[in-house]
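Q: Protein A?
A:
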Amino acid sequence: MSGRLSLALAAGATVATLLFCTAPAAAQPVTPPAHYANVQLADPAKEASAKALMETLRCLVCQGQSIADSDADMAADMRALVRERIARGETPASVRDWLVSRYGDYVTYDPPLSGLTWPLWLAPIALLAIGVWIVRSSFRRRTR
């Protein structure tokens, strides 16, 4: 009886492993990207304006790339939103403000100074001060 039980457990574990491994394939999006995700605007001036704005916005998935450079689906959707709004005649500043209100300050590469972002602005200064202090203390030890 224990042989059948262990065989059933092994079969169950195999089925569970196969389901676990195939789950990411089922999670892939089946909808095509938005129209303006990879298509430029007909007006070169508006496209240049949209492209300049897209280069200043951070991909929320990649986080190290702008939405202009990212291949992520989220970045494609954001590119489409930017191009659609620019095509309707909105200014890049208003599109940027809309994206910040929707996704937060993190969507920009230069978040404004606020109570939440002051560590981002002060951290480089603090790290530089710590580095200067370490260098000065190491030189003082050598001169003694």
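Q: Protein B?
A:
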Amino acid sequence: MIDNKAQDDDAPAPHSGFPAADRPVATILSPRWSTEEARDRLNEAGQVMDLAGIKPDMTVADIGAGEGYYTVRLATRVGKKGRVVAEDIVPETRDYLATRVLREKLDNVSVRLGLPADPRLPENSFDRVLMVHMYHEIESPYEFLWRLRPALAPGGQAVVVDANRPTQDHGTPPELLKCEFAAVGYSLVSIKPMPSAGGYIAIFEARGERPEPSAIRACRSGKTATPASMARESKEP
């Protein structure tokens, strides 16, 4: 099933009041991180889903779904009563994945086209949101995380899998990741090494009120994020 809501005329204007990322942004090179056979030999998806607590009947979003390695395995894990929304910002990749979903008769999966700074997910809907080997490609992380927050259901969690290396080298240093999430009001639940997925897995929950965009301060060199309450009082430009 293809969802074209991301092509609506009322798409939000990018970078409207949000700070720019004070770090390089990796380019999107390929919808495939590695071969599915190689990843399955390491039980990558199984380990990630276990650590993320993904269970039958859950509703899960696969952000930056690419060719669907996680999408098809999530569909099996959540079962017929569960739901998977697979999102990508590249139209050709979205179309390829939609064809795969139809071919493999994944009736509990829908595919949609997102925007670079907005995943365009329905509010209060997701138990888990997965971002696997794609966070370093987000050009406006504060806006993206801010627009993602309403999509989480009560108790919902955002799960990031990435490599521990500079963003320009297609990874995200863990301290920088934690700082950027904290700047938008997320709290770290856990972070663990994930060798089978080429790095680590970090899990976050949204806590408290979502800060105003103007209250968010960009992270620099992995330093602790400025709390929103302090940012409002700050005289920094």
